[in-house]
Amino acid sequence: MIRKVILGLAVSLDGYIEGPNGEYDWCFTDQDYGMNAFLERIDAIFIGRKSYELLNNPAEEASNYSFPQFKKYVFSSTLMGVEDGAKLIRGDIKTQVNALKNQSGKDFWLFGGSSLTTSFLNEGLVDELFLAIHPIILGAGKPLFTPLKERISLTLIDSKTYSTGLVSVTYRL
Hints:
By secondary structure, the protein is an alpha/beta fold. The protein has one domain: Dihydrofolate Reductase, subunit A, CATH 3.40.430. Helix content is 18%, strand content 32%. The strands form two sheets. The protein has an eight-stranded mixed β-sheet. Strand 9 and strand 10 form a beta hairpin.
């Protein structure tokens, strides 16, 4: 069975993954919102350089989300090395990701960031979107989707509405 790449993240109703100052204090953390079930499906994380550096900076609040239980694949053309247990990916990402998808294991979490997400979408490497749509309009910030090469059609495979107004949706590409 081929492993899936799942883009999983929180997004504002107007499509931002960060506020205008890089903040994500608008993300709900008061309940599970399906994350435990999602995390059971994966055993590795695909992450870009900026997100990797943020997760590995002890001064940043995001370092609380380092996910030591998962193998990390860091995509960067500028990093010279990564922590033990992580693997640096450079060059032809399509060939390398497809080779990883054919290895045994659970699915991959495409964790961040927006440049890596765009590259994966443009190369046809994303199999599912698992989005937690928060009931807030930020008005500015970092958009989830930057210009793509072409339109991508989605098929809704699951949705859940929570009492807080958060809606989680899962789409197959």
